[in-house]
Amino acid sequence: MPDFHLNMGSYPETRLRRTRRNDWSRRLMQENRLSVNDLIWPLFVCEGANIREPISSLPGVERLGISQIVEAVGEAVELGIPAVAIFPATPPDKKTPECEEAINAKNLICRAVRAVKKAHGDRIGVICDVALDPYSSHGQDGLVREGYVVNDETVAMLCRQAIVQAEAGCDIIAPSDMMDGRVGAIRRALDVAGYLDIQIMAYAAKYASAFYGPFRDAVGSAANLGAGDKRTYQMDVANSDEALREVALDISEGADSVMVKPGMPYLDIVRRVKDSFGVPTFAYQVSGEYAMLCAAAERGWLDREKVMLESLLAFKRAGADGILTYFARDTAKLLSQA
Ligand code: PBG
């Protein structure tokens, strides 16, 4: 006969392990879930027919020629991924200080978007960045005057860039430049041009982070930027209240959704943004985060599939409605087998 009286004080009244004991119960109690509908897949397009160029700092990610991009987007459609974000690796000879190629309606990204939309129509959303760094010979996201990235002149260029991308068929314009007032200006430019239904996903809280390195290799802007940095427009990594001001401004200027970037080290910001505004909130698991996990997995130090799923579920737990991630295709495949 157990001595209930003696043990009463020391036994826990609440046993949280009870609900964790069996798989059925763990599934039942689960608060957050990762679904294919949460994924946005970033892709890099380059010039040339039949091209697949590996990117050494982004294992498993390639720069693709336009027909390969169309194929990759077809794969995304099949997997049920709701949207892709396409970034151009502009040929170096097209990069200039004034970034004229950004507003060329026949530039690489516009041709890629046209091809993708022609092949896949509304079965998938296409997101394009608005920022000048893929086109600038100095690697900055804006126009440079006397060593400084100027705001208003840059915004005027960004509006023209948004229009050529809208004409090409892009569904969501994603300003990633961090100039002040660009969301409002782009919204007005799109509306005046008749693109009332093209969404704006604002890179609202985008930090001057060291985690973008492999992306800059992918689009070939790392060498152009050299020892330069983007701290006069991207946010100080030390700040959190300021992120809320950025998000508030972008919403008031007409952003349909907002983004926090980078991702994993900034989940506190994702949570604050989601709690404060309750708007569609996205997070970008950026190139350096992906590279970091892949590097550890390659060495056998981490289990690739497990950390991939855990890291993405953590975004959901933090309040993100969706995640831009280079793991999107692998995750979608894995989820479809589950
Ligand atoms: C361009 C842009 C960058 C990223 C997305 N859009 C790089 C930067 O701001 O320097 C980074 C994405 C990644 O690292 O995966 N403005």
UniProtKB/TrEMBL annotation:
<keyword id="KW-0627">Porphyrin biosynthesis</keyword>
<dbReference type="GO" id="GO:0006782">
    <property type="term" value="P:protoporphyrinogen IX biosynthetic process"/>
</dbReference>
<comment type="subunit">
    <text>Homooctamer.</text>
</comment>
<comment type="similarity">
    <text>Belongs to the ALAD family.</text>
</comment>
<dbReference type="Pfam" id="PF00490">
    <property type="entry name" value="ALAD"/>
</dbReference>
<dbReference type="GO" id="GO:0004655">
    <property type="term" value="F:porphobilinogen synthase activity"/>
</dbReference>
<dbReference type="InterPro" id="IPR001731">
    <property type="entry name" value="ALAD"/>
</dbReference>
<feature type="active site" description="Schiff-base intermediate with substrate">
    <location>
        <position position="261"/>
    </location>
</feature>
<keyword id="KW-0460">Magnesium</keyword>
<dbReference type="InterPro" id="IPR013785">
    <property type="entry name" value="Aldolase_TIM"/>
</dbReference>
<feature type="active site" description="Schiff-base intermediate with substrate">
    <location>
        <position position="206"/>
    </location>
</feature>
<keyword id="KW-0479">Metal-binding</keyword>
<comment type="pathway">
    <text>Porphyrin-containing compound metabolism; protoporphyrin-IX biosynthesis; coproporphyrinogen-III from 5-aminolevulinate: step 1/4.</text>
</comment>
<feature type="binding site">
    <location>
        <position position="246"/>
    </location>
    <ligand>
        <name>Mg(2+)</name>
    </ligand>
</feature>
<protein>
    <recommendedName>
        <fullName>Delta-aminolevulinic acid dehydratase</fullName>
        <ecNumber>4.2.1.24</ecNumber>
    </recommendedName>
</protein>
<keyword id="KW-0456">Lyase</keyword>
<dbReference type="InterPro" id="IPR030656">
    <property type="entry name" value="ALAD_AS"/>
</dbReference>
<keyword id="KW-0350">Heme biosynthesis</keyword>
<dbReference type="GO" id="GO:0005829">
    <property type="term" value="C:cytosol"/>
</dbReference>
<dbReference type="GO" id="GO:0008270">
    <property type="term" value="F:zinc ion binding"/>
</dbReference>
